[in-house]
Amino acid sequence: MDKPFSLACENNRGPILEILQPLLADKLSVLEIGSGTGQHAVWFAKHLPKLRWQTSDLQHNHVGINQWLDAYPSPNLLPPVELDMLGDNWPKADFDCIYSANTAHIMPWEAVVNMLAHVGLTLPSNGHFCLYGPMQYQGVIEPQSNRNFDASLRQQASHMGIREFHKINQLAAEAGLVLLDDHAMPANNRLLIWQKV
Ligand SMILES: C[S@@+](CC[C@H](N)C(=O)[O-])C[C@H]1O[C@@H](n2cnc3c(N)ncnc32)[C@H](O)[C@@H]1O
């Protein structure tokens, strides 16, 4: 069986790494929420060898993630744990960074709420949460391609859709996180970085 493949991951991994590399240089352990294919995990683990990278996702994605981990093994790369933001199986290990890409518009809003709450409870003081993906600001989605994307998501499933930055940032504030940066990224995405107080 071929490995699952995401062209978007191949395109965005370089620009994301460029921004995260200095931030992650001193970190020990990252939890990735919604690893998807596993492409980001193998890329980041290779370029950040001192960092332990814990993959996670819903169970049905584990076979594909493991295929990528088998193809690009790395001692700092851990096989996926089952992690559903609608469930209560948050991993027990310590993490000083949590990373998630292209998940907030896919999981239900209730799951986004749980994700921010868990992130706040898990991160130590000065830990970071990095969230990548498209965002809307004050109810406005730009440009047209993102509006089309949002419409196609909502058509596929009513629980999906591009999220409002201010609502996520409000959840983050309630979880004890302070926004450090909101980076504009290629293909009309954002890379949001919060720090736990
Ligand atoms: C568009 S994919 C993004 C995958 C990968 N991070 C990337 O950037 O290509 C969305 C991911 O969110 C995950 N996801 C959806 N609902 C979730 C939930 N309730 N809890 C955790 N992950 C969820 C999916 O399984 C999938 O891996």
In the CATH hierarchy, the third-tier topology is known as Rossmann fold
Helix/strand order = HEHEHEEHEHHEE
* Ligand catalogue: S-adenosylmethionine
| Biggest sheet: strand arrangement | 3-2-1-4-5-7-6
Query: Looking at the chains present, what oligomeric state does this protein adopt?
Result: single chain
Enumerate how many helices there are, as a single number.
Answer: 6
* Total beta-strand segments: 7
- Major sheet: 7 strands, mixed
Class computed from helices, strands and strand pairing: alpha/beta
| Percentage of residues in strands | 15-25%
Q: Give the mean pLDDT.
A: 97
CATH architecture descriptor text: 3-Layer(aba) Sandwich
Separation, N- and C-terminal Cα atoms: 45 Å
Query: Which percent range fits the helix content?
Result: 25-40%
CATH class: Alpha Beta
Number of domains: 1
Give the low-confidence spans.
none
Instruction: Name the CATH superfamily assignment.
Output: Vaccinia Virus protein VP39
Please provide a brief summary of the model.
Helices cover 38% and strands 23% of the residues. It has 197 residues and is α/β, with parallel strands linked by helices. A 7-stranded mixed sheet has the order 3-2-1-4-5-7-6, sandwiched between helices.
What does this structure look like?
- There is one protein chain.
- The chain is α/β, with parallel strands linked by helices.
- It has one domain (7-196): Rossmann fold (3-Layer(aba) Sandwich), CATH 3.40.50.
- The protein contains 6 helices and 7 strands; from the N terminus they run H-E-H-E-H-E-E-H-E-H-H-E-E.
- It has helices at residues 7-24, 39-47, 62-71, 109-122, 144-156, 165-174; strands spanning 29-33, 52-57, 77-82, 97-101, 128-133, 177-185, 189-196.
- The chain has a 7-stranded mixed β-sheet with strand order 3-2-1-4-5-7-6, with helices on both faces.
- Helix 2 (39-47) links the parallel strand 1 and strand 2.
- Helix 1 (7-24) runs parallel beside helix 2 (39-47) and helix 4 runs parallel beside helix 6 (165-174).
- The longest helix has 18 residues, at 7-24.
- The protein is globular, with a radius of gyration of 16 Å.
- Bound molecules: S-adenosylmethionine.
- The site of S-adenosylmethionine has 20 residues, from loops.
